[in-house]
Amino acid sequence: MAARNPTLRTYSSKVKSLTIGDKLILYGDEASPPVRFVQMTASILGINLDFRNVDLFGGENKTEFYKNINPLQKVPCLMTHAEVLVDSHAIALYLCRRWDTEHVLYPPGDLAQAHCDEILFYNATTLFPIDSDIYTKFFAGIPASKERIDDWLKALDFLENRLKNYEWLAGDKMMLADICAVATISTVLCSIPLADHHVKLRRWFNEIEQQPFYNINKRGLERLMKFTNFRYNRS
After folding, report:
1. pLDDT of residue 81
2. Which residues form the GST C-terminal domain (predicted)?
């Protein structure tokens, strides 16, 4: 495998900012990793989203208004052309398939797409469920168990091994897979640090942190930490 280029390629808006006839309305709370995943994807692709805040900590996702939009009462939710998408992975893929004509985030070719999808599915089935369980219990006053922390670190081991074969999680450049994973991983890092042997994963994370779009993620993490600190202070 080729060595990493010491000059980091930065990903700002890679395509001309898009003007879309019908608004793309994104409902969400920036404290949520899936919401930040969609926001970062749109930012990189230069897609303007009409963001509507749904305060999870205020229970706005449980209101009748929002239940009528998304019966699952979860975020994010994208409305476009009177259609609704209610999963962050589906939303991000829709944005890429519809507007990523230069393959900035979603590669051409069946196998390359499968490698990218593999990480999206891993996030949906493994990474994010652990994240969600840890924070749901935290806000209920239950700290993460040693077993759950071990589950998380083992889940990261898969990505560490992945980075022995690829420069990024799905190939030789940053793609949708990396944006998806970093939203979840950065959230859990607020409470559980990487293990010492996660050397390649730490380098991967540090490189993404330098990207302009990562400011979106930082903003959401700051919002999350405001509520976690409040919960700590009440304990």
Report:
1. 83
2. 109-227
- What is residue 82's predicted lDDT score, i.e. its pLDDT? 79
- Cα 39 to Cα 77, 145, 185, 186, 230: the distances in Å are 12, 31, 16, 15, 26
- 144 and 180 co-located in one domain: yes
pLDDT at 155 > cutoff 90:
yes
Segments of the chain assigned E as strands: 25-28, 50-53, 77-80, 83-85
Measured CA distances, 91 to 103, 136, 223 (Å): 16, 24, 23
d(CA 193, CA 51): 31
Confidence at residue 23, expressed as pLDDT on a 0 to 100 scale? 86
Q: Residue 222's beta-bridge partner residues?
A: none
More confident residue, 3 or 185: 185
CA atoms within 13 A on the CB side of 203: 14
Task: State whether 85 and 124 are in the same domain.
Answer: no
115 shares its domain with 222: yes
Cα 156 to chain centroid, rounded: 15
Could you tell me if residue 15 is inside a domain?
A: no
Q: Rounded to two decimals, what is the model's pTM?
A: 0.91
Please give the Cα distance from 159 to 131 (Å, whole number).
16
> Which of these, 153, 223, 221, 155, lies nearest to 193 by C-alpha position?
153
Domain range for 122 = 110-226
Q: Residues 135-151, buried b or exposed e (16+ Cβ, 10 A)?
A: beebeeeeebeeebbeb
- pLDDT for res 201: 98
Asked whether residue 235 carries a pLDDT value surpassing 70, the answer given is no
